[in-house]
Amino acid sequence: MSLPAVVSRSALSRSAPPPLSRLRTAVAVLFALDGFVFGSWAARVPDVSAATGASSTTLGFALLCLSLGALACMQLTGALCARLGAGLVSALAGVGVSLAAVLPGLSGSVPSLCAALLVFGAATGMANVAANSLGVQVEARAGRPVLSGLHAAFSGGGLLGALAGGLVSASLAVAAHLVAVAVVGLAAMAWAAPVLVAAERAPARARRVRGAGRAEHRPTAALVLLGAVAGATAYGEGALSDWGALHLRENLHAVPALAAAGYAGFSCAMAAGRLAGGQLVLALGERRLLVGGALLAAAGSLTAVTTSSLPVALAGYAVVGLGLANVFPLAIARAGALGGPSGVALATTVGYTGLLGGPPVIGFLAEHAGLPTALGTVALLAGAAAVLVLGLDGDRIRRPVLPRAGDSWVVPVAAGLRPVAVRVRGGAGSYVRDLQQLSVG
User: Fold this and answer.
1) pLDDT, tens only, 198-220
2) Does the domain formed by 17-391 have CATH 1.20.1250.20?
3) Can you give the pLDDT at residue 202?
4) Which CA distances in Å does 232 have to 32, 389, 390?
5) 90 to each of 29, 120, 374, how far by Cα in Å?
């Protein structure tokens, strides 16, 4: 079945999305930018804490404001993505998170830091939901698991941001550093934003023909459970990003550059695991990868907080990164397949409760039981994630299955046009070619 038999080229040319490779690159840039900003912030948390005179408890409260800002925007962002398109919202979010990154560095007191982190958190939450919504669409157009690879760009950006932050921490003030981060972000968005805005929200693998015309069922319980799996492991990512460097400085007496290297090693290991995520999913299946990764992260966390050796602790951080690498993106990808942008928003909101709500919990526990004990809860939550995965419906956590030859699918070729029934001619390979042909012309 060729495109001219479905819709005229003139109609498609008015609303054709960018080529898949170009769109995937632009989305990867957005993920990398988000990670770069977050990694830069994570490397300077101890300096911001010292500049504002924050104790563990008050710093935890300030980080709670970051969480509240992010969570307040996530559901709204999902609705905006469904209404305006994830591409436009992603472009706005990329610019917003770049500008908001400057605010924490301008804070001179705990109240001003709380206000700055509230705005920064809102921009971060918007960027995360929009980027994941667009990433789910890219995965659907590609016809294979790619969201883990896009999250690898986030980890790579976090690695670069943490390394740069550690290197300049002794010579550059926090405000000047974060202004430079904002400039880099705006420069990246100058290229990526036009591609993101041009992206269609419609091209995606749709429901089978027999399901067309029926109201889409939103499996809320499954989405919440997927969000809980993501959140239980994202708790570890948030804990290490905001408290990992402080643990290495205070308890293992690491110099600032080595303390920043802890999060950098975590991000590097996570990026490597996510780059291999697509192949691992196809080889092992989602359930084994999710359970095994969560248990590996638990072991790495326990090692990092119980050792008195700095090299062993750094290795433990890296093991946590490998274990957590694919848990969050796999959970969000399945939520997007089940519920679209609204499903991504719901699961991401629940998931980022762990990522963003974890640091203030760590701060409270650190004040009363010590930072190593507080960070030990990362292992507890990772183990809980493994248990939650086992509670998911078996058909929702399995090896991805591409359509077989002869299967019929409904493919929305462009926003505003009628869905098109297409019969797959030759199994997975032909399915991908047919979908790409219908999507990009």
Assistant:
1) 875 444 443 333 333 333 455 77
2) yes
3) 43
4) 23, 11, 14
5) 11, 16, 35
